[in-house]
Amino acid sequence: MNKRIFLSPPHIEGRELDFVRLAFESNYIAPLGPMVDAFEKEFADVTGIPYCLAVSSGTAAMHLAIRYLRDKVAGDRERSGDGRKPMIIASTLTFIGSVSPATFEDCDLMFIDCDLESWNMDPVLLDMAIKSQLADGRHILCVIPTDLYGQSCDLPRIIKICNNYKIPVISDSAEAMGARYSVEIITREPAGSDSVVSSSPESSMMRHAGFDAWASVYSFNGNKIITTSGGGMLSSHDRALIDQARKLSQQAREAVPWYEHLQIGFNYRMSNILAAVGRGQLQLLEDRVTRRRRIFCLYRDLLADIPGVSFMPEPDWSRSNRWLTVIILDPDRFGASHQNVMEALEQENIESRLMWKPMHLQPVFKHCAVQGGGLSDHLFRHGLCLPSGSALSDDDVIRIAGIIRKQSKDT
Fold this sequence. Notes:
Blueprint: H1 16-26, H2 34-47, E1 51-55, H3 58-72, H4 76-80, E2 87-91, H5 100-104, E3 108-112, H6 123-135, E4 140-144, H7 155-163, E5 170-172, E6 180-182, E7 187-188, E8 197-198, E9 206-208, E10 215-219, E11 232-236, H8 239-249, H9 272-282, H10 285-303, E12 309-311, E13 318-319, E14 325-329, H11 331-334, H12 338-347, E15 353-354, E16 369-371, H13 374-382, E17 383-386, H14 394-406
Parallel strand pairs: 2-3, 2-4, 3-16, 5-10
Antiparallel strand pairs: 1-11, 6-9, 6-13, 7-8, 10-11, 12-14, 14-17, 15-17
Helix pairs in contact: 1-9, 2-9, 3-8, 6-7, 10-14
């Protein structure tokens, strides 16, 4: 049996062990500590987002952001006039951790289909959904677009739409560390925040994924482009959000000599040991992006000539980190389905994965409304994520592509 090739395994080869050793020598091995502080600062330096909070997962980061908004509009049921729950509008083509925190805070969900250009939230459908919900008297708590598989959504356009209605945007950039997008001149006016930040006048500036959102969420799960084995980051230009989220993440303890609690909080902080790993990984981020983009290009060069094979697009206003290389297979033209190819790879001990099943198709969200849905349905039914780990060799990619090519009816 060939050695197992995983979809996106951790890649450790930098100063991670040095930082972990320093953490052990300092005896800070529990949550919090100097490694956490340094990781937050270095993360802010890399993304350009000034206030950062390291937590136990991307889902925890999302929950803290939603809780902050929920607390600021505690009277929203009364303001809506009919006692209905606040509404959160989110991408349907995403991982459930992006939206499950909405249920923790007793919010309703509405899902938005993707567009062809980026496979991310369609701004046109978003605008239609917002107008329909407001016309129905609903209070929209926030909009959550996902940066799918490391491809930035059209965040400036989404923010411009949401600013028209004073709705904050929480960018689910969990998969998009190192990805970038181009911006035109926009003014960020985060709803629920006292801060107003204007963008730089350079219309061609490239921003880190999530930069212009009111809040952004990142994941360091074991399969991400950089990892702490498990962990996440909440980032924002709104210091009040991060200060309150920091308090809530530490059981909402008050600043007195004893344990005093005026609110219910959470045990969401990151371990000092995991932050040490993150510091080492962060130093290699650009190398990881470069390698994954190289892997994507190699797959494309090897497979693009096969009828019925297409790849996840990259708009000209963005630079994806290509966290995962994703192909779409037309079974009529290719001669086999995406599941047939997945099974053929598995027979060679190679892991691949179907695309995210859209949230509006999930049984747990069957009661939720969706705007559109046809494109995300199609992508799920024909899309396959290929091994994309940054330690994957060119020879491995060539071998994988060869197995896929053998499934084609034209071979």
